[in-house]
Amino acid sequence: MDPTDVLDRAAPDDLLELAVDRAGVPWQVGVLLVLDRPLDPAEVRRALADRVRAVPRLRRRLMGTPPLCGRPVWVDDPAFSVDRHVREVRCDGPLSDAALLDVAVRAVGTRLSLRRSPWEAVVVTGATGDRGAVVVVFHHVLADGIGGLAALGALVDGAPPTRDGDFPRPAPTATRLFVDALTTRARLLWHPVRGLRRIRDAIGELRATDAPRPPRSSLNRPTGPGRALRVVRVDLAAVHAAAHRHGGTVNDVVLTAVGGALGALLRGRGEQVDEVVASVSISARRRARADRLGNAVGILPVGLPTSGPAAARLREVARRTALGRERPRAASAPLLDAVFRLVAALGALRWIVEHQRLVSTFVTNLRGPQVPLTLLGARVREVVPVTTTTGNVPVVFGALSYAGTLTLTVLADPEACPELDAVVAALRGELAALLAAPGSGDTDGSAPPPTGSIGSVGTRARSSGVPRARTRRGPVRLSARYRAEAAALRAADPSSSGEPVTEDDLADLPEPVARWLRRSGVVGRPRTTGFTALIHGRIRSGPTASWMPFTGEQTSRFGPNPTRLFSLTARRGGLPVEVLHEYRDGHARMRARLGGIVPVLDASGGAMTRAETVTVFNDLCVMAPGALLDAAVTWSRPHTRGVRGTYTVGAETVTAELVLDADADGDLVDFVSDDRLRASADGRTFTPQRWSTPLRAHRDVGGRRIPTVGDGVWHAPEPEGTFPYIEFHIDAITEEPAGRRESS
Questions:
Q1: Angle at Cα 405 formed by Cα 404 and Cα 409, nearest 5°?
Q2: Is the confidence at residue 300, as pLDDT, over 60?
Q3: Are 8 and 292 in contact, with CB atoms under 8 Å apart?
Q4: Biased-composition ranges for Low complexity (predicted)?
Q5: Biggest alpha carbon distance in the chain?
Q6: What is the DSSP string of 538-596?
Q7: What is the pLDDT of residues 474-520, one digit of tens each?
Q8: CB within 10 Å: which end of the chain, N or C, has fewer?
């Protein structure tokens, strides 16, 4: 078959890059080519008009497909014109490094149209001087870094000529797309074991380095539209030698220097953090072809020590990354694609990337050409990678080797990281220390590591060296973490039984509340301060979404400083999704992981805490009404059908209307609050929305009467309207220390 007849479908990795690019700073990357002479923009246009034939995607646009016809495809663009992709930027004066970096970062930050092939070449000229430059920019959907280098190799001098007389070819028919998609799906179904093996390898890569969850720090903060770029250059042979002395790679040297530089930044801000976590891009390909671009990238989360002797930190980083290299390259890519595209479809991806706390920075490292390149006869003096960042990661790093030089770039939001120049200085100092550090067999103690802090006076010494990563950092699966934390809570703060509740305890309560508590069976029973409950039901994300069955377990302790741990396991598309809610010390956090391991969501903050405070009040009323007697609750506006309750924990005060069934001696039949918060459609913000839990199927359980079936309902504005998003059944409740499980 003629290779040109093969459909150029967007791969799942490509669609992930589109999903990440939602708004704000475009998800684009580029490379700055610094030349030994200026180039004529017209000459560049003529050359690229011929050379782009070797890179088909540079003349193609991404076309959507009809239903059941598979992923989008790249098709020849009949309206292609190189003039749309090449432009000139003229600088006043000579092309200084600062001027070139400013042009490059602005070019990468200018959004490219997806109605045509998303790339451009910016020819930079100056009023004076003997240098020239070209910035090549492309959207990440077009190619990853390896693919980008392959495309660059086809555009510079010396690339073999390409014949392409059939351009433009007609777009594929719907029938062909459908048959191709059906064949692809059948092939996947025919090899289910291969798919399971890929999931196993993906999870293994994400867990391989045992990267810790980084502590909260100012490295994760909101970013704006501005970007600034700085460059550090170092001799590649010297980096190779330093890496060899300590059993590592060039990438290990880069990562170690990044960890040290970020540690200095944090110390300058008055923060002491032992480790930060870098998300390191891992390509599934060691090389790519210009006619087969696309993306094939996984991630390797690596914990980076921020202080200690340079040599010791390098050896530790090398040990951790070696664990990741034992896995298939970029094994995590398929799983991450599926997870992030699902989250994007639910409208929550932007909120996640702007609030995540799993990584502190991103690091990319590419092996570029080792011999000098030329473009239209001009020698390429330097190749500078230009990366991008989004979400709440204001500082990222890139590295690219070219013709004996390793070029490192630091890209930052100057508003979120005004210390950018100090970070660059710290990075230079870290590299100098690593290159001078003796091998593990040397003991002369030369080249002590930098221990200063950006913006501080003096230095801080650490004599403890670098702690090795523990083989385990507590349970990895969220369900296992819940079991460990719940067991620790029961051991440290056992649910206690005090004096029995009497009628005197109810004397000062509004009559509807007193009647409800009598009906619940609290009189004559010991006071309780907590419980463990088993729950099952089903849950969904919206009124038209599919229901997902779930099982759950909850352990709660009440009092002045309540704690709530709730573990839920649901299934979507056959895959388990584990969710863990934690409320303790006046703060709430919710995490979700595919398979209990792969992070999908990690939310916390004031809005989450307020929402969970309403949930704690609801737990008191539904499953432990006797504990209301000792809770910080005030009652108002009593009437025959209910009462208003106001509950305070720390700085949070929430209110709810309790609806009581007058015909059933006061059973609690609904709990309605306007203080609960729900994520917006795009998952970016939380907004107050009425929330209720209609209750039914009240039963006597071990002498108490509680509702055993209920719903969680959002009262949303149109077009959603009011809809239940969760249906739950309370299967059992356990009170310690009595050790008696009371099944419903």
A1: 155
A2: yes
A3: no
A4: 488-497
A5: 97
A6: EE-SSTTSPPEEEEEEEEEE-SSS-EEEEEEEEEETTEEEEEEEEEETTEEEEEEEETT
A7: 445 788 888 888 888 877 654 444 578 899 989 989 989 999 999 99
A8: N
Q: How far apart are CA 521 and CA 702, in angstroms?
A: 9
**CB-count exposure of residue 587 (10 Å: 0-12, 13-18, 19+):** middle
Given the structure tokens 């609290």, which residue do they identify?
522
Phi-psi label, residue 676: left if phi above 0, alpha if psi -120 to 50, beta otherwise: beta
Question: Between β-strands 405-412 and 361-367, what pairing exists: parallel, antiparallel or unpaired?
Answer: unpaired
Query: What is the C-alpha separation between 692 and 723, in angstroms, rounded?
Result: 10
**pLDDT tens per residue, range 66-113:** 998 988 999 999 999 999 999 999 998 889 999 999 999 999 999 999
Residue 410 to residue 233: CA distance in whole angstroms = 11
What are the tens digits of pLDDT across the range 3-45? Answer: 456 789 888 888 878 877 766 789 899 999 999 999 999 999 9
CB neighbours of 615 closer than 8 A, spacing ≥ 6? 564, 581, 583, 676
CB 428 within 8 A of CB 436: no
* Torsion 124-126-130-131 (CA) sign: negative
Total residues found in the chain within this entry: 744
The residues near 277 (Cβ < 8 Å, ≥ 6 apart) are 211, 212, 213, 214, 301, 302, 303, 304, 358, 359, 360
Cis peptide before 512 (omega within 30 of 0): no
Q: Is residue 316 within 8 Å of 449, Cβ to Cβ?
A: no
pTM listed for this prediction: 0.60
What proportions of the chain, in percent to the nearest 5, are helix, strand and coil?
A: 30, 35, 35
Instruction: Give the per-residue pLDDT at 209.
Output: 45
List the one residue out of 364, 343, 363 whose CA is nearest residue 354: 343
Q: How far is CA 136 from CA 87, 112, 133, 385, 411, in A?
A: 11, 12, 10, 10, 17
Phi, psi for residue 310 in degrees, rounded to 5 = -60, -45
Q: How far apart are CA 444 and CA 611, in angstroms?
A: 58
Q: 16: Cβ–Cβ under 8 A, 6 or more apart, which residues? A: 295, 336, 337, 340, 341
Which residue, 270, 256, 30, is CA-closest to 134? 30
538, burial (CB in 10 Å: exposed 0-12, middle 13-18, buried 19+)? middle
The pair of three-digit structure tokens given for residue 80, joined into one six-digit string: 């292609």
How far are the Cα atoms of 539, 549, 572, 725 from residue 546, in angstroms, in the given order? 8, 10, 9, 10
Token reading at 169:
């070819």
Residues linked to residue 727 through DSSP beta bridges, in sequence order = 538, 711
Query: Which DSSP string do the residues of 86-100 spell out, in sequence order?
Result: EEEEEESSS--HHHH
CB distance 212 to 607 below 8 Å: no
- Give φ, ψ of 626 to 5 degrees: -65, -30
